[in-house]
Design brief:
The structure holds 2 protein chains of 2 kinds. By secondary structure, chain A is α/β, with parallel strands linked by helices. Chain A is built from 10 helices and 13 strands. About 4% of the residues of chain A have low confidence. Among the domains of chain B are: 161 residues, ATPase, nucleotide binding domain (Nucleotidyltransferase, domain 5), CATH 3.30.420.40; 236 residues, Carbamoyltransferase, C-terminal domain (DHBP synthase). Chain B is built from 21 helices and 22 strands. Chain B has an 8-stranded mixed sheet with strand order 13-22-21-14-15-20-16-19, sandwiched between helices. In chain B, strands 3-2-1-4-5 form a 5-stranded mixed sheet. In chain B, strand 21 and strand 22 form a beta hairpin. The longest helix of chain B is centred in the middle third of the chain and has 29 residues. Chain B is globular, with a radius of gyration of 23 Å. The model of chain B has no long low-confidence stretch (mean pLDDT 89). At the A-B interface, strand 1, strand 3 and strand 9 of A face helix 2 and helix 14 of B.
């Protein structure tokens, strides 16, 4: 995201959040047909218009609370163009760059001030990959450096979270910022020639993550804990694929991901929304092909999917 | 009515926005992109302008472009000389012209498909004239615009009255005082469009008499009205790297300086001095001619040459004019604003606002760029693990800063809205104690990493200006005029420059109680500060004056050589870390460089690794 203003700030619980009451234009990518759009954040540090409490109420009442990463938050589109806003009566608690653990912590934060009928966890499929990282690169106000984040440890079958409160990040001068998917030209060539059925390092990482018992344990634990924070709400898991996954992941990988979440939903008594197949059924012009996030059409499509599900 | 003005694809891209004639925002793209003199389409500048005006692109009624590209194209390609060295440049240029400049409206609509308004294409020098006259607050004025070249014109004289500008005279390419100045700039080893003010700063070290006649009689012919005819056997304007022929070397009997690292000698100083004196004369004659044509004693100046503060100061001292107003963003960046204002007032027939007792002009002290709240600054500082102190009270902060200054510390100031134009006026400034000779040396060599001969400019309390400077305008708040120190404030007579070649010897000789801001010829480029101009700087100066009896502070732009002035908190922080600045005041936060996590490499080494920019 490119802006002349700072977009994120440090948060000791989650790691980072949007700056409170931010309103700024994000410069789009012409090559991707992404227009400039306005990013608005509320006083809680999420991308919403400021909602006021009804008289006598201690929490904001909404139909839907969406929790996720940049796909939920709506990177690439304005607030009003997102599926949550199209659906209406929703609170969007997506934060770009977060993983499943951070999304559980977002739930914890939101439970203090939101009372939803439904809670929908809508992470990007690749969020699971980030779970065990201790630091993550955040692009922010032209700089791009590593920010600390909470990370898990599985001990005696239970998940323990470390790095909370999350330490403040530091600009690091002596080492280059790590590129998560950095791959040499030679490696890319080998991969293409070996015809593995996926073309990016990310899909390889996804396969590794979704095959990992520790990742399953962590993800399941996070969703269960998050669900417990909203005892009066119906909870859903609706993982969102990006365009690269839709195009390049083979059938086995797609099946693996679906089964991962279906298993969690079964044990946690949550409902699964099959966004993957819905997006597969549609045309690919639902994404920014270079940047990777959903475009306005993609958000309309998702809003339609959720609307049918909640009818 | 909402008008977006744009200047781009040549140098100094910028955008400006006016709403019902009021200037809301104006900014140069280089401040966001961090590319000095950025010429690209100003995406971020436009985004900022829309943000500041709380508008979206579909609510803009007009987009005003600063020139007519077809006229520029005709001039550029009629002077094109293809050779193996420039084929790639020419190819890239043709692409740029074809896809962007000549089809600007289509290009704009491709980037902003939601835009439904109209396009207006101004003229280059009309945009300059409008940027000078309409914000001046003057009811009527002679308008003089002088630059290197815009379309096919190099200078114009106009009459400004009420909401109309009437073009009276033009000077055509290649006869151009701006191009002459740029050419000699490249001969002296500096870069065109970036190094002219370095030549202006070098001039006082030389003797203008040595080469003045060569400029006036050989390099060009000067007419009585200030127009001139260049002797083209000495010039080659097909490139901005080298703008002269071998004949120039034969004329001056000296090889051109290859780059900025070659030592400067007396001949270089004398050439600079001769050039400056000649430019002073040209500007003076042109201004007088403008007055003669219009019969008006107010003068508005714009165009790149209008940034020559020495010429402006001479003009003011001549007392030929009642009021001289210079557009602070006189370069092409100001044309975005000029185009928008011209469309609003002249083309669409809207009345012009004039100055009253409280407001001297409409530029809002040039504070037209983005600002960052204390909350945003703290968010930034927390996101990089900086160590800082917060001062809730401005008085306490001011007092602490004066303590720092009196300890000889130099620090950056980052407060309020960023200035529009090349001058830093206190919101994006590096400041220091002017009483110390060491301040100039340290600032040049250890902070700005620039040539040691470069002088610094002071802020001065408005009420003390006359006490220190001769014939000075009390409202010189944009640092566009050079004045001479009063004789009573000088320490001794200047040494004979014509016999001295050691620039450091000239530099280190104390010349007044404020050596850091007094140039070798006792001149200084002032910025006068009143309480209404900038309360914080005024209070800082007042406190410093109370303790030291000196109503000055050194004020230089907050950047290092080769980089644009800082815009965001990150830029300011990086500039502090990558130089030997002692600290940084951002909003009401103060940071000491020694408290931060510093890079392993010292600043000099970091600069060696960076690509050379100028």
């Amino acid at each position: 995201m490119k802006s002349y203003r700072q977009i994120f700030t440090h948060n000791p619980l989650i790691g980072h959040k949007y700056i409170n009451n931010l309103k700024t234009i994000i410069v789009g990518e012409i090559e991707d047909q992404m227009l400039d759009y306005t990013l608005i954040a509320d006083k809680f540090g999420y991308r919403n218009e400021n909602l006021e409490l009804d008289q006598g109420q201690s929490k904001i009442h909404v139909d839907n609370l969406f929790i996720g990463c940049s796909f939920t938050a709506g990177d690439g589109v304005s607030n009003k163009s997102r599926f949550s806003d199209i659906l209406g009566n929703s609170y969007n608690a997506g934060i770009s760059g977060t993983d499943i653990i951070q999304q559980y912590l977002i739930s914890k934060d939101c439970s203090e001030f939101i009372e939803p009928k439904r809670v929908i966890f809508s992470p990007y499929i690749g969020c699971v990959v980030r779970n065990f990282m201790k630091k993550r690169q955040i692009d922010n106000l032209v700089s791009s450096h590593l920010w600390h984040k909470p990370y898990p440890e599985i001990k005696d079958g239970e998940m323990i979270l470390h790095n909370i409160p999350v330490p403040k990040p530091h600009l690091e001068y002596t080492s280059n910022t790590e590129e998560i998917n950095q791959t040499s030209f030679f490696k890319q060539l080998i991969r293409k020639l070996s015809n593995k059925g996926y073309s990016s390092d990310m899909n390889k990482n996804i396969e590794k993550a979704y095959s990992s018992p520790d990742q399953f344990k962590v993800t399941q634990s996070c969703f269960e804990k998050a669900k417990s924070l909203f005892p009066n709400s119906t909870c859903f898991i609706a993982p969102i694929p990006n365009w690269d996954f839709l195009k390049h992941a083979n059938k086995d990988l797609k099946f693996l991901v679906q089964q991962f979440y279906l298993s969690i939903c079964k044990t946690s008594r949550m409902k699964y929304i099959d966004i993957l197949n819905c997006m597969l059924a549609g045309e690919y012009n639902q994404y920014f092909y270079i940047e990777g996030h959903l475009n306005a059409s993609g958000h309309i499509k998702l809003a339609d999917v959720f609307a049918k599900e909640f009818r | 009515m909402n008008i977006l003005g744009i200047s781009c694809f040549y140098h100094d891209s910028s955008a400006a926005i006016i709403v019902d004639g009021q200037i809301i925002a104006a900014v140069q793209e280089e401040r966001f992109s961090r590319v000095k003199g950025d010429r690209s389409f100003p995406r971020f500048s436009i985004a900022y302008c829309l943000d500041q005006a709380s508008l979206t692109i579909d609510r803009i009624d007009f987009v005003a472009f600063y020139e007519q590209p077809s006229k520029s194209f005709k001039r550029v390609y009629s002077n094109l000389h293809l050779n193996p060295n420039n084929i790639l440049d020419v190819y890239n240029n043709i692409l740029s012209w074809g896809l962007q400049r000549l089809q600007f409206d289509k290009y704009f609509k491709n980037v902003y498909p939601n835009y439904t308004g109209e396009f207006y294409f101004s003229r280059h020098h009309i945009s300059h004239a409008a940027s000078a006259f309409f914000p001046s607050g003057l009811k009527e004025a002679s308008i003089l615009t002088i630059d290197a070249v815009g379309e096919d014109t190099t200078a114009t004289i106009s009459l400004g009255s009420k909401n109309q500008i009437k073009l009276l005279k033009i000077m055509k390419y290649p006869d151009s005082i701006g191009l002459l100045y740029s050419c000699i700039t490249t001969f002296l080893g500096f870069k065109a469009n970036l190094g002219e003010y370095k030549v202006m700063g070098l001039a006082p070290y030389g003797d203008s008499k040595t080469y003045f006649d060569i400029f006036k009689q050989e390099l060009c012919y000067l007419y009585e009205d200030g127009s001139l005819k260049l002797n083209m056997k000495y010039f080659d304007f097909t490139s901005t790297d080298i703008m002269f022929t071998n004949n120039l070397e034969k004329l001056f009997h000296i090889k051109p300086r290859i780059n900025e690292y070659e030592p400067i000698n007396k001949t270089h100083m004398d050439i600079a001095a001769g050039l400056q004196a000649f430019t002073d004369e040209v500007v003076f004659l042109m201004s007088l001619h403008a007055q003669k044509l219009t019969n008006i004693r107010n003068l508005c100046l714009s165009g790149g040459v209008a940034l020559n503060c020495v010429s402006n100061g001479n003009l003011q001292r001549s007392k030929k004019f009642d009021k001289i107003w210079v557009q602070p963003a006189s370069g092409d960046s100001g044309n975005a604003l000029g185009a928008a204002l011209y469309l609003y007032h002249q083309v669409l027939g809207n009345p012009k606002t004039e100055a009253d007792n409280d407001i001297t002009d409409l530029m809002q002290n040039c504070r037209l760029g983005p600002s960052y709240s204390d909350y945003e600054i703290r968010c930034f500082l927390d996101s990089i693990g900086a160590c800082y102190e917060y001062y809730k009270d401005d008085t306490e902060l001011t007092s602490m800063l004066v303590d720092e200054l009196m300890d000889g510390h130099i620090f950056g100031l980052f407060r309020g809205r960023m200035e529009f134009g090349p001058r830093a006026l206190g919101n994006r400034s590096i400041i220091g104690d002017p009483r110390s000779q060491e301040t100039q040396t340290r600032m040049n060599l250890k902070i700005k990493f620039r040539e040691s001969f470069r002088p610094f400019a002071p802020f001065v309390l408005r009420e003390h200006v006359s006490e220190w400077f001769q014939d000075s305008d009390l409202d010189n708040k944009y640092m566009l005029f050079v004045y001479l120190l009063n004789e009573s404030k000088r320490f001794n007579q200047p040494i004979d420059y014509s016999t001295t070649v050691n620039i450091l010897q000239l530099l280190n000789q104390p010349r007044s109680e404020v050596p850091a801001v007094t140039h070798v010829d006792y001149s200084a480029r002032l910025q006068t500060v009143s309480h209404s101009d900038n309360p914080f700087i005024y209070n800082l100066l007042s406190e410093f004056n109370l303790r030291t009896n000196i109503p000055f502070l050194v004020n230089t732009s907050f950047n290092v050589r080769g980089e644009p002035i800082v815009c965001t908190p990150l830029d300011a922080y990086n500039c502090m870390i990558n130089t030997y600045m002692d600290g940084l005041c951002m909003g009401n936060y103060f940071l000491r460089r020694s408290d931060q996590t510093l890079p392993e490499m010292p600043p000099e080494a970091i600069r060696i690794l960076r690509p050379k920019i100028d």
